[in-house]
Design a protein that fits this description.
Belongs to the iron-sulfur cluster assembly SufBD family. InterPro entries: Fe-S_cluster_assembly_SufBD, SUF_FeS_clus_asmbl_SufBD_core, SUF_FeS_clus_asmbl_SufBD_sf, SUF_FeS_clus_asmbl_SufD. Residues 137-364 form the SUF system FeS cluster assembly SufBD core domain. This is Fe-S cluster assembly protein SufD. It holds the Pfam family SUFBD_core. Helix content is 13%, strand content 44%. The chain has 2 domains: 2-339, no CATH class; 340-394, no CATH class. Helix 3 (353-369) packs antiparallel against helix 4. It starts with a strand and ends with a helix. The strands form 2 sheets. It has a 17-stranded mixed β-sheet that branches. Strands 2-3 form a two-stranded antiparallel sheet. With 394 residues, the protein is mostly beta strands. A hairpin with a 4-residue loop joins strand 2 and strand 3.
């Protein structure tokens, strides 16, 4: 096992299956945020933000050769009464409020989408049912942009569900008004050949609460870039993630929480399980506490469970602190192989091996499954875990 607990900036712990706690160079991108694709050089894989990504498997999303083709994806929105759903052009003033693209693929997605989807929950509206955004791949190449905006003191749950086959780059913005509460569940359950690259920007207002749960299973390559900034003091962000990386899959989650406002909180917990030859998971967790962000309270953690030989994990928590006037800040990363002692303990009590493995993996993910808060998604997730484990035994 490779483990780094509250590691000082610049320390490195390396093992055969994990790399943890490097310096915070990943916080600094090779080019400043921009809507213009030309502002970003074509990546070659040596750049900090691209060094783990197999560029050849991006199917041209990174170098401009992937042009929109076929039916791409079909996006549908099922929203409760009172929620406004609009299709707008690129000149709509509500686009870009949560942040600009930070890499070439995100900039390409912004410049190439035809119509953006804007979902608005009016101020002081408390939704009794989730907003469901379905992104169904139709086999082509597609770019998209989605904005979810909550007015002051509004409360909502939004489920963004990806499935099917596509080469897809999509940016999502979450804009929270003062005192608003938003829970987002983003599910990546693509077919085995799909490619998905996405940037998720959240702007958290004064005393607002943002909770993100990212669930990644399918796809040949999935690379997601969740980012959080604050628009006023008292904001809180919780970023949870679950991923199950199977044979040959590349799943990459690159997070940045930018504490740019005083007296805000953040908590990041991502967990992954891996099995099969050339299964590769990458988790980059960047937390930046700027000089003005006094009173910050933040923590980030990544845990990985390697179920079989041949899988690889790269786990890199980064913490950069520019002020000493904070409540707390820390990070942790650990990757370990399946615990044979736990398996033996259960089997010694008459539980068959497959059922014992299932119980251990379910227990590993349990605290994060409970964060979802949407019953049908939780049931689907647990069924998917069982399906993945059955495939490994077969």
């Amino acid at each position: 096992m490779a483990d780094a607990q509250n590691a000082p900036v610049g320390s490195t712990t390396a093992g055969s299956i994990a790399v943890a706690a490097e310096s915070t160079v990943a916080t600094r991108m090779s080019a400043p945020p921009s809507y213009d694709v030309a502002d970003f050089p074509v990546p070659h894989g040596r750049e900090e933000e691209w060094r783990f990504t197999p560029l050849a498997r991006l199917r041209g999303l990174h170098d401009g050769t992937a042009t929109a083709s076929g039916d791409g994806v079909k996006v549908t929105v099922d929203a409760p009464e009172g929620v406004a759903v609009e299709s707008v052009g690129r000149d709509d003033a509500r686009l870009g409020r949560a942040g600009k693209p930070v890499d070439r693929v995100a900039a390409q997605a912004y410049s190439a989408f035809e119509q953006a989807t804007v979902v608005t929950v009016p101020k002081e509206t408390v939704l009794s049912a989730p907003v469901r955004v379905t992104v169904a791949g139709q086999g082509g190449t597609c770019y998209s942009h989605t904005v979810v905006e909550l007015g002051a003191f509004a409360e909502a749950v939004v489920v963004v569900d990806h499935s099917g086959d596509a080469v897809y780059a999509g940016n999502v913005e979450y804009v929270l008004g003062d005192g608003a509460k938003l829970t987002v569940v983003s599910v990546q359950d693509w077919d085995e050949k799909a490619v998905h690259v996405g940037q998720h920007n959240a702007l958290v207002g004064r005393d607002a609460t943002f909770k993100s749960v990212v669930v990644t299973f399918g796809g040949d390559l999935v690379r997601l870039h969740p980012r959080v900034e604050y628009a006023g003091p008292g904001g809180e962000a919780e970023l949870f993630g679950l991923y199950f990386t199977d044979q040959g899959q590349h799943q990459e989650h690159r997070l940045l929480v930018d504490h740019n406002i005083p007296h805000c909180k953040s908590n990041v917990v991502y967990k992954g399980a891996l099995q099969g030859e050339q299964a590769h998971a990458v988790w980059i967790g960047d937390v930046l506490i700027e000089a003005a962000a006094e009173g910050t309270d933040t923590y980030e953690m990544n845990r990985n469970l390697v179920l079989t030989d041949g899988a690889r994990v790269d786990s890199v928590p980064n913490l950069e602190i520019e002020t000493g006037e904070i409540v707390g800040a820390g990070h942790a990363s650990a990757t370990g192989r399946f615990d044979d002692e736990q398996l033996f303990y259960l089997m010694a009590r008459g539980i068959p091996e497959y059922e014992a493995r299932r119980l251990v993996v379910r227990g590993f993910f349990a605290e994060l499954v409970q964060q979802i808060g949407v019953d049908d998604i939780e049931e689907r997730l647990l069924a998917k875990i069982d399906e993945e484990l059955e495939a490994a035994v077969a």
